[in-house]
Amino acid sequence: MPGPPWLILPTFNEAENLEAVVARARRALAEAAPDGFRVLVVDDDSPDGTGRLADRLAAEHRDVEVLHRPRRTGLGPAYLAGFDRALAGGAGYVFEMDADLSHDPADLARLLAVVRDGEADVALGSRYVPGGGVTDWGPLRRAVSRGGSLYARTMLSLSLRDLTGGFKCFRAEVLEAIDLPTVRSYGYAFQVELTYRAVRAGFRVVEVPIVFRDRALGQSKMSWRIAAEAFWLVPRLRRRP
Question: 5-238 has which fold?
Fold first, then answer.
């Protein structure tokens, strides 16, 4: 029987959002996985006190734990550290989700159901399939996001429409099979790389429509440097690591 689902929440300066996202995620997971779940906050030594807040939440809730990393090295390494901890802890399913409430924690149940019921090995929360969408973005950011997914889809010959999305549920076996130590991406190209590796390894990836909402509190971590990494790295993913 598969182990429990683990939700990985990478954080850097998310003190304004962390308590709310953990509370809403715990409610959703308690209904979707009544036999147990874990919420793992992976904090990169946030100067705003996110790590201390996460420790308090872990002390209050037995299903919450914290992984403290000594410095900020990027989204990809934070997720990889979280994946390692989840797999070592016996996870049967592993979620990625932003900690800024851009992703609706209520959708965790829908993503888990798709994987747990055998419809897919990876459920990808998608903004760009019927029923999905984005709110609160201006025209430029919409164009950059759609253009990034189109670029990755074209370069990698994939049919998936939201390759840059960061709301996913994996069967643990997928993460065990795709050689995580050789993942090369640090920023948002990490999302493209993981999905591409899953497809290349023969796993089934299904897009589940979600509505993405721009953060209300805190600062976005997106930068032109992160976008440039994705532009440069995506074509190279076709080569073996």
Answer: Spore Coat Polysaccharide Biosynthesis Protein SpsA; Chain A (3.90.550)
